[in-house]
Amino acid sequence: MPELPEVETVMRGLRPVLEGRRLARVEARRPDLRWPIPADLRQRLTGAVVTGIRRRAKYGLIDTDRGDTMILHLGMSGRMRVDPETDEKHDHIVIETDEGRRAVLNDARRFGSVHLVPTDDLDSHFLMKGLGPEPLGAPVDLAGFKGRFAPVKALLLDQRLIAGLGNIYVCEALFDAGIRPTREGGKVKRTELAKLAAAIPEVLERAIAAGGSTLRDYRQVAGELGYFQHEFRVYGREGEACVRCAAPVARIVQSGRSSFYCPSCQK
Questions:
Q1: Residue 235's closest CA among 157, 150, 156, 173?
Q2: Scanning 100, 101, 182, 218, which has the fewest C-beta atoms within 10 Å of its C-beta?
Q3: Would you call 153 a catalytic residue per the annotation?
Q4: Given strand 50-56, what is the order of strands in its sheet?
Q5: Is 70 exceeded by the pLDDT of residue 93?
Q6: Is the pLDDT of residue 227 over 80?
Q7: CA distance 216 to 219
Q8: For 207, phi and psi rounded to 5 degrees?
């Protein structure tokens, strides 16, 4: 599933295509993805001007001058294609601007979604409600870990505490901070939390600069692969030598998800 860096990369790629442009045609080629596609999507978006392209957590947001915001979730296999030369089987949403440029949502597994809500009501939408602060743009606050018994990794993945963090980048940030993912969150020392708070945005920014990580389906809007997977320090490297100490990287399962860490470097 695309995580924060992948969604951020996609939305940045859509800005020069959609932002400030009038939408000349909007087509939904099926009635639903993970949830029903709004029946009035075409009516509400055709003729509207896109006033903003942004991201919240793992969701893309497209604002219009009609006071509506499209919430775009890429799900497991969703990707945005810009100015494709040919149509593909799983092209489900087509957006065409007054310049004749196109942005197309392709989603083979259909776990993604498209919602259209009044911008003023965005924070109360069920996908947005309860999301914590963003890990980019402001200092990361880990004060909510105090007194918590859950593993530090589980706390980092709790979208109510920090919005947008996913499995890959949590593993990488914990490695950079030298913290084992199984540590009880409330027992992580203040100095260690400071290292973690610095590591989280640093890892995310490096991933965004690399265009995200392509492990399976993810592509940037022009079709390029992400390259951050070539910079992984622990994720997916079970049994390989740690980049710091050469000890073999370990893998465990926490709440159904793989955690990768160095038993020597991460205490």
A1: 173
A2: 100
A3: no
A4: 50-56, 59-64, 68-73, 113-118
A5: yes
A6: no
A7: 9
A8: -65, -40
CA distances from 255 to 30, 188, 226, 252 (A): 34, 20, 27, 10
State the catalytic residue, choosing from 55, 56, 58, 183: 58
The 3-state DSSP class for residue 121 equals helix
Helical spans, DSSP H, in the chain: 4-18, 41-45, 152-157, 167-177, 190-209
Q: Which among 25, 66, 148, 257 is annotated as catalytic?
A: 257
Buried b / exposed e over 124-146, threshold 16 CB at 10 Å, is: eeebbeebbebbbeeebebeebe
Which of 3, 8, 134, 172 does the annotation list as catalytic? 3
Q: Are 171 and 236 in contact (CB under 8 A)?
A: no
Give the CB-side neighbour count of residue 112, counting CA atoms within 13 A.
Answer: 29
Above pLDDT 90, what percent of the chain? 85
**Helix, strand, coil percent values for the chain (each to nearest 5):** 25, 25, 50
Whether 85 is a known active-site residue: answer: no
Q: Output the six-digit token pair for 265.
A: 């470097």
- Chain centroid, CA 256 distance in Å: 20
Find out whether 111 and 76 touch, Cβ atoms under 8 Å: yes
Are the C-beta atoms of residues 237 and 226 closer than 8 Å to each other? no
Angle (CA) 110-259-149 rounded to 5° is 105
pLDDT tier for residue 217 given thresholds of 50, 70 and 90: low
Q: Which two tokens stand for residue 160?
A: 């109510």
206 as an active site residue: the answer is: no
| Whether 2 is catalytic | yes
> Is the entire prediction scored with pTM above 0.90?
yes
Phi, psi of 265 (to 5 degrees): -85, -25
